[in-house]
Amino acid sequence: MSEKMTRKDFLSNLAFGGASLVLFPWLAACSRERQKEAAGEKARLGIIGTGSRGQFHLVNLLQDPAAQVVALCDNYPPHLDAASSLCPGAKRYADYRKLLEDKEVDGVIICTPLSMHAQMTIDALAAGKHTFCEKAMAHTPEQLSAMYRAWKDGHCVLMVGQQRLYDPKYVQAMELVHNGAIGQVVGIRNYWYRNNDWRREVPSPEFERRINWRLYDEYSRGLMTELACHQLQNGSWAMGGVQPSFVTGTGSIQYWKDGREVFDNVAAIYQYPNGVHMTFESIISNKHFGMGEQLLGSDGTIDLVRGILYREAPRRRAGLEQLLDQIEQGILSNAAFAGTSWVTEDASKDDGVRFAEHVTVNDGASSIGAAGDGSVELIHAFCLAVITGSQPAGIVEEAYWSTLLALLGDRATHLASRVDIPVEIVW
Amino acid sequence: MEFIYSTRNPAVPTAYSRLDAMHTKCEILLPFLAEDEARALVEDVWSMVQAADRRYNRFLADSMLAEVNRRAAAEAVEVDEELFLILQLCETFRKATSGYFDVTAGSRVPDRAVLLDAPTHTVLFSRPGMRLDLGGFVKGFVLERAVRAVTARTACALLSFGGSSVAAVGRHPLGAPWPVSVAHGYFTDRAAYTFHLEDAALSVSGKDPRGREHIVDPATGNMLEKEGLVAVTGPSAMVTEVLSTAVWVAPAERRGDILAAFDGYRASEIRCLTDGQALTLSI
User: Fold this and answer.
1) Does B212 touch chain A (CB under 8 A)?
2) Could you report the predicted ipTM of this complex, rounded to two decimals?
3) Domains with residue ranges and CATH for chain A
4) Looking at the DSSP assignment, which residues form a beta bridge with residue A64?
């Protein structure tokens, strides 16, 4: 949990309601009623994969009153030792199948390399464990379908680590879109730039592929599954759940020629049935523009990263009219009109309205997780789901589509040609 | 008068109205009222403002104030109850602020005094050449009356007279106190500092970095050459209006004493920098 976020803030931020629940049904998993239902109980959890992301979740879970971490599993001893030092009371496993046999474990959190997600998730669900799998869901479309099928055929909760699902900023932004604040959606732009080699330090060469699994095709789909997977959800939400018809793209290794197999720069374009395009671009040898997510509408633009709404043709509203404007949009923001005398009204451009309070602008540099990005809320929602046994509605479908779009985008960048996207979930 | 009734947010139907009066732009925001109720309230408030504008504008030859300024050095001038009350209040505030708030400041006459006779409701200037300028007081006085009229009919409103005098009734319709920002002197669309008002008033005095001097030094009768803004918040719009002027005019070492005489009022000095930053210091 962020040092700046108090416990009270944390819980109140989770108390979504009203229109949000129609657009984002999975938020009901954090409703006051659900929190009340789970009050005083703890989800007994095992973490499979205790590397950087696993430890990130562990630290958050240790501060969550709804969680009790009872088991840790990793076949790389340094990671297991690091996690054990944070949570000495938890049992240690080197084989995840042994952890799945542990009757004291109600739910598991899978934070392993992408290529392992499918088998581990399918095994966990079969073992009757509620399962949280890090994103992306799967390494191939076939694995994705198998995971979906395993969940549909079973009776356990499945959640996937798409933290934007529980980020209040995205919830508020999509409410604005669906209330017509930017008019008709005409474009969606996503980019994620970094300037680092994306490598982890390895103690000796034989651990290279194991530690730096993100760089190798056998384990990873590179930038598409690790980064795009998050941002491609913006399109689904803004387009009201409609998925793109096809994707085309390109990619290459142009800078980090260090033996890696995944691209260090990609560009993909998704086209929706109504002709709207969504783009994703990532370059990891330049960080100037950082991370960006923009919803372009006929009447306005939403900068999702910064939580700002810009209008195409802003009325020259000043003074209290600024506040009227905000009230019309359901926004509580400040208006700069007080002063010694009347201020000028000659603004020629719209400097935007901040629609979300306490926005954490994430520069996208971290590969682990960032404060205020929804990770804490998401993992708390999983704890509540484990305690109550209730599957948050729509969340697996969200994860399915974002992963499929990422995987097919990856295929398009390798083929440098058009790849069609199915209209329905295949399972 | 401009009147807008917006139902774009059906949960918070809101009336907005604007009137150019008192040499500035007077505005009111009324969430939640029905359109006819809001319109009636706005008309009542603007009638009050327009009446005060006619009576207390010293530049209007036929205003009550202009008549006092013409005659009061030569004879005791009988005034009505409201003007007499205003002059009594101004005298009280002059004393309470050690003379840093003074509606005769522009007179450039030494040893001056406004002599008020309660039984006859008359006003007499002690020296020739004196004049009253109620511009720095009436805005707050009328705003406070307007707040009273609004409060009788709704629990949620925001009023602004030129941005220098602001009053909040209740909270913003979305739940929190009204966020009111003092505009940055060099970048007017930016906030130099944000106040959160709930049943409270804000008054801002001083010199906008790009504006001209307009506050008179009571000691010299000349425009005071000084930078920075003073913002005062508290329960009464009339008192914040007086205090923002007095505290800005007073030298730094006297400001705390002036403020200490008024319970429930807080003052800040705001300095806008050319790079867009602003410094805010509590007084």
Assistant:
1) no
2) 0.83
3) 7-166+369-393 (3.40.50.720), 168-367+403-420 (3.30.360.10)
4) none
